[in-house]
Amino acid sequence: MNRDPLLPAVIAAQRGHECAYCFLQRATRGLVGKVYQEQLSGRYRFDDWEADALVSLINSVRCFALIERSARFSTYYTQSLLNRSRDIKRKAMSHKGRAAAEMLSFDESPSLGQTLVTDSFNPEQILLVKEALRDIRFRRGKGYAHGVSKLVGLKPLKKHLDAKEARRMQQVQYHFKKTVYRALKEE
What we know:
With 187 residues, the chain is mainly α. Helix 3 packs parallel to helix 5 and helix 4 crosses helix 5.
């Protein structure tokens, strides 16, 4: 087996030197980017992937066996990253993951100064959506109207919702999306 250039840093990290983790993170930055581009590009945010890669690095350093090495550390770490990317894809493709992706996150709701942007720059699609939204017959009720106005940004949304309010907002969002999808399918 060839000499492993990362081995001294791994040994230092296992002995508790925190600067070794910084070195390993810098040395494997290209590897992290490559795995992201090949496996998760467009499915997962890069900054979240970097955080997951750092956790994977810490676990790889902790579990890497120095005595009975059968591979380089970079190979071991690459396999750890690939396994983590597969876990992320499985979670996203599961029924629970798809349902969670369709829901609007209350933590990432736009503030008053932000504007919402669609991923479609096609004017025809935007016109169809606007026409469909004009013709939709929404549910009646104060609670539903209040929830929809919060979803579309007309009324401010609290930073932290209690369980009852969060559940109500999830229900309003579910019914709102269902109504919008139904209207878009009719067009």
